[in-house]
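To: structure desk
From: M.T.
Subject: fold request, one chain
Message: Could you run this one when you get a chance? Sequence is below, nothing fancy, just the single chain.
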Amino acid sequence: MVGCLGNLYESLQNLDNIYIQPNQKKDTLLKPKSAASVPLLLINNSPVQKQFYRCPTHSDYVTDDPRSYCPTSRCGCTMYINMTYVEPPVENVVASNGGLVKGVVTYMVLDDLVVKPMSTISSITLLNQFSIKDVGVLKEKWMRYTNFLF
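Reply: Done. Structure tokens follow.
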């Protein structure tokens, strides 16, 4: 892959699974089934409320279209009774705002779009990579991204 996007792709590929939210998979972005299935931008943080409906007399069948008819023989009622969908609990995630990675980790994004979890070792490795001998010449720059690509 040409340019910095290859670095971004490789960063995600090399990211250890301990940084991925338990209900997510890296392959969603690495191997998408279609371009429409990859949410590159999290435009709306509010979860989509799922709506389900049942028959007024038979609660064995559920549909997501209130215009559907009950499949029970001789009933024929419209399945219009609204049911409330309850999300399963998300385990081991402190703050889940969407996205792929856990929000409790700080990530380092380099100029060439290489993304790594921030740690003391990764910082020392980066200083050695750029042959920085005097850390006093460095300046700190913080940017906060709440809805990063992954």
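Reply (cont.): Strands lie at 51-54, 62-63, 81-84, 107-109, 115-117. Let me know if you need anything else for the meeting.
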